[in-house]
Amino acid sequence: MLAIRIRRRKAVALATAAALAGLAAPALTPTATATTAARTAATPYDDTYYQDAIGKTGDELKAALHTIISDQTKLSYSAVWDALKDTDQDPGNSGNVILLYSGISRSKSLNGGDTGDWNREHVWAKSHGDFGTSTGPGTDIHHLRPEDVRVNSVRGNKDFDNGGSGFTDDGGSLTDSDSFEPRDAVKGDVARMILYMAVRYEGGDGWPDLEPNGQVDNGSAPYIGKLAVLKAWHDEDPPDAFEQRRNQVIFDSYQHNRNPFIDHPEWVEAIW
Ligand SMILES: [Ca+2]
Ligand SMILES: [Ca+2]
Are residues 166 and 186 in the same domain? Predict the structure, then answer.
């Protein structure tokens, strides 16, 4: 009993010290009775971010979201390394990042181009529209993820579809000659990243108009397939805490824009 009381007293003292020092309190669970101030502190964003999109559907919704999410800070390709160490940090080990397709937790310091390193995977393969790695779609961390160098090259620039065989360090992902299927836990993440890119890049600023379509073998055209499969993956694998935190970190600390399909999953069906 005494030990418990002492621990409790210590916890209260720490919380008080944190409050006095002006440190952020742990996230609160929002409740219906929460005050506005508490809700602001506890919820990831205020939906006024989307006020010009709420209530719209189809092309009108897509256009409104394009305008909203195009107001952003842009990173250089070299700045992407440190950003990914933050956005994709392993919740169980702050020294590591989680690799997207393989699911491996690997040291942040192993970023690079050698076997055993992780590098910057473009989920919207950069050859699909040939946008490269100059500041723009090629440095937009909403679709950039850490991946093992070798696994990254297995995915290459393949479109997304169901089916194929496993490979070394696949984590459950599959591939065949013309497509790639991510492991189940990130299928929806992949779909939402692709659909974010489709809304963010509509042909302005000298960048191609990126769009999902119904096929594989898209080559260098600014398309990624298959839309019907991506929509199914979005339904099967809804946003989880890792993905939501990632969206929030990008919003707070890097690009200051959001992936609408993580915040409002129903908008996928409303547009496509
Ligand atoms: Ca997921
Ligand atoms: Ca587009």
Answer: yes
Cα 110 to ligand 1 centre (Å): 24
> Is 121 found in the same domain as 24?
no
Stretch 7-13: mean pLDDT = 37
Asked if 140 and 9 sit in the same domain, the reply is no
Question: How far apart are the C-alpha atoms of 4 and 233, rounded to whole Å?
Answer: 47
Domain that holds residue 129: 48-271
Residue type, 123: V
Quick check: 190 pLDDT over 90? yes
pLDDT band at 44 (very low <50, low <70, confident <90, very high): low
CA 176–ligand 2 middle distance (angstroms): 27
Q: How remote is the CA of residue 119 from the centroid of ligand 1, in Å?
A: 20
For residue range 194-241, list pLDDT tens digits in order: 999 999 999 999 999 999 999 999 999 999 999 999 999 999 999 999
As residues whose CB is below 5 A from the ion ligand 2, the structure lists: 198, 202, 209-211
| Number of domains observed in the structure of the chain | 2
According to DSSP H, which parts of the chain are helical? Answer: 2-20, 36-42, 58-69, 79-87, 149-155, 184-200, 227-236, 241-249, 260-263, 266-271
Q: At CA 55, angle to CA 52 and CA 61, rounded to 5?
A: 65
The pair of three-digit structure tokens given for residue 137, joined into one six-digit string: 């779609």
